[in-house]
Specification:
By secondary structure, this protein is mainly beta. Helix content is about 0%, strand content about 55%. Strands 4, 5, 6, 7, 8, 9, 10, 11, 13, 14, 15, 16, 17 and 18 form a 14-stranded mixed sheet that branches. Strands 1-19-20-23 form a 4-stranded antiparallel sheet, with no helix packed on it. A 4-stranded mixed sheet has the order 2-24-21-22, with no helix packed on it.
Length: about 375
């Protein structure tokens, strides 16, 4: 096939961004550097007192968007500090040899501070790979919990309507203080994450900004070894639903966790065990590619064998939808005419008819 450059003008431009456009969250928006931190207000929930759960049905909003999540007001019973450290700076780092970062959470309530840690690595092009956690509150007898296998809970790029799954198993100990007994336990976790909302989130002290809402439906199958033989017997399956709000250059800025129950919580559950709201951070304001940027590396080729024109281009970070437009006269005040909206990075034109040359441009949409 004889292919030569096509002698026509092709313009690629930055689209006019709509105020209602959805953002893309990338790895650069998350916390990946040692020395970074954030502070969050939270309610105080006592697992032994269900009445301490927080009414929340008015907060989560709806599916879709754009919408406003007003988290500027809420409970301040607890203050949690999240510090990002080298694993050696946190407890039991030796249990997670592949982790390159530890998220250490310190929560203050009525003069007491409780600490736990999550161990992970940010893998380029993949996302946040989590290896497990250390938490004496989760189990005083086995506070170190290794995920088998590790999971990627937040991918390297997250967009509205994305969905993904995670599955892991951990072995721990269930303590029954009233009976003065404990049992080895196997917990099998599976989650379905769906980015089901977009809009604007308003935070205390930090103000407002664009955000995505992630809905996690989690299933926990619980099995115990009652006689110490290594034979685990299923005793219960529990369910939770968790919402996360992610904002560019801030990562996870808010979180709502449902009460764990033996039936899947509805999407509009009315009581939360946790409601966290970020109010301070030193996260660096980096260009994470969350805006709308022009395409690059545009190549135009013509085949005289079949009279077709091939447009190819490279997508800017965080962009995966484009519109091909044309105009017959750049000096005209007439608007550009849309040819097609695409999810791919090429477009074929039929130029065999020998009609008047046109001017083309590729517009980044989202």
């Amino acid at each position: 096939m004889n292919v030569r450059p096509l002698l026509l003008l092709v313009i690629f431009v930055l689209s006019c961004a709509s105020s209602q456009a959805q953002v893309t969250i990338t790895a650069a928006d998350m916390f990946n550097e040692t020395g970074s931190y954030y502070l969050a207000y939270a309610n105080h929930f006592d697992p032994n007192d269900p009445s301490t759960s927080f009414p929340c049905s008015h907060l989560m909003g709806a599916v879709g968007g754009p919408q406003l999540w007003d988290f500027s007001n809420g409970p301040t019973n607890e203050v949690s500090r999240f510090d990002y450290l080298a694993p050696s700076g946190a407890d039991v780092a030796e249990a997670f040899p592949e982790a390159t970062l530890a998220e250490q959470k310190s929560t203050a309530f009525e003069g007491q501070t409780k600490t736990n840690a999550l161990y992970f690595s940010q893998i380029p092009g993949i996302g946040r790979k989590v290896f497990g956690f250390y938490d004496p509150e989760f189990s005083s007898l086995t506070p170190t919990n290794v995920f088998q296998p590790p999971i990627v809970d937040f991918p390297a790029e997250i967009r509205y309507l994305d969905t993904w799954n995670t599955t892991f198993t951990l072995f721990t100990t269930i303590d029954v203080p009233l009976l003065n007994v404990s049992f080895p336990a196997q917990l099998n976790y599976s989650s379905v994450f769906t980015v089901d909302g977009y809009g604007t989130v308003d935070l205390p002290k930090l103000g407002f900004g664009s955000a995505l809402r992630i809905n996690e439906a989690q299933t926990i199958a619980i099995a115990v070894d009652l006689d110490g033989t290594g034979d685990y017997q299923n005793i219960e399956t529990d369910y939770t639903r968790n919402y996360y709000w992610l904002r560019p250059a801030h990562g996870i800025v808010a979180q709502l966790n449902s009460v764990q129950s033996t039936a899947p919580p509805p999407s509009d559950f009315d009581q939360a065990t946790a409601f966290l709201r970020m109010f301070e951070t030193n996260h660096k304001q980096v260009d994470s590619g969350t805006g709308i940027h022009p395409v690059t590396d545009l190549v135009v080729s013509y085949s005289k064998d079949d009279g077709q024109v091939l447009l190819k281009w490279s997508a800017p970070a965080g962009t995966r939808k484009f519109r091909v437009e044309y105009s017959s006269d750049l000096s005209s005040a007439l608007p550009w005419t849309a040819l097609s909206t695409l999810d791919n990075q090429y477009y074929l034109l039929d130029a065999s008819s020998g009609t008047k040359p046109k001017f083309y441009r590729i517009v980044s949409l989202q």
